[in-house]
Write a structure and sequence with these properties.
Helices cover 29% and strands 28% of the residues. The chain contains eleven helices and 29 strands.
Amino acid sequence: MADVVIAGAGPTGLMLGCELALAGADVLILEQRAGATTTESRAGGLHARTLEVLDQRGMVEPFLAEGRPLQVAHFSGLWLRLENLPTRYPHLLALLQSHVERLLAEHAASLGVTIRRNAEVTGLHQDHDGVTVTLADGGTVTGRYLVGCDGGRSAVRRLAGIGYAGTDATLTSLLGDVELADPPAGNVFQHRTDRGDYSVLGFEAGWYRVMTTQTGVLAQDGPVTLDQLRTTLTEIAGTDFGLHSPRWLSRYGDAARQADRYRLGRVLLAGDAAHIHYPAGGQGLNTGVQDAVNLGWKLAAVLRGDATEALLDTYHDERHPIGARVLDNTRAQVALGRYDAQTEALRATVAGLIAQPAANEQLAAMITALDVAYPLGDGHPLVGRRLPDVDLPGGRRAYQLLHSGRPVLLDLGATPVAVPTDWADAVDHVPAHGTAATWQLPVLGAVPAPAAALVRPDGHVAWASGTDGDTAGLADALSRWVRPLAARV
């Protein structure tokens, strides 16, 4: 029996596998596809917070080496500047999902994660001890927990009986990775006409991504054909740019749905299995990877016996509102992308607002997920927010302290704060007196550095003290997020 069976070897499933294996769990990933990684380009980039969580695990460099930094993102095609965001990665890293999956799969393999391909999930049964998964070939596998990372049509979600409520599609977008005989002079992004909008983006040498969107047009049944893409592109753009030799053709709409619950007993959901939405702003892959980082350390703690299953409920409590927010902001982007005169007037108004630095930062922080704040308590403004990657004495960075995936007590004040004896073996205590007196947070700006901070393995601050030597609330935070006293071995 595996500790955790993961359905789906996309970015979410692979990242979750890495997190669990780092913590010592035995992980089996089941992937319906036969190939090692997707041959389709799919998602196109990694946002700042995703780069940060990769950095927290010491695995960001291969992604940076293969990607291309872009200092802009967008909100319904209106450009957002990223260069002033308070992060080491104030940019979007353009990197196709096929490369992301390959790099994550390589890292997972280095940690001992087993990936079983051509393994389609067709049934599941859970009891008090674990979950039995039935496969299309008639075989079964068992795990103490099962996590569905198997996409918007998740078999795990359906078989578990978890609802997936939301709104239906109101538009259709076509996508083609193609070659062009007569490409435009430069990249075209969401060029708007009264018949829809189109994009022509040069990716890797020799081919382009062509996309079209038409509101009020609902998807037809069956696979997309090159003739359909050619006809729609010509209708909107007035030319087909000589498109030919498709590598991948697809369609998508703006249906937005979210799982009623992210956990049902020993079955959990992450990524598109938990939430789908219009891919506005490139948030889908990134939200899924961040789901995995929130869930992984919690599931590992329960497997070790360091936490009760109540800790798993905090995964839903923290990530479900984040998924709902992504659904809402993508719905807003769809509404802002329509083509009537009223919407054009609204776009002009919103564009004027985005030109203001404060509004730009607020939207950019939301799209990049740098502003995510979990409801972990009151007090210092850092509590619930991601720890900034501040420079520490001795040439270290804060995120280097998180490479092991263990919680950290960052001791920054002149008066040392000791880890209480009951948790001394479970927390990395790092004295760092002499760090900058103020830290920059997205939207909030400069905030006083805490005297001490308890940082969860996912990089979010669970407790912070503003006064040297003050440990009020630290034991409660350790008991909640690291190990209840009753679980101490």
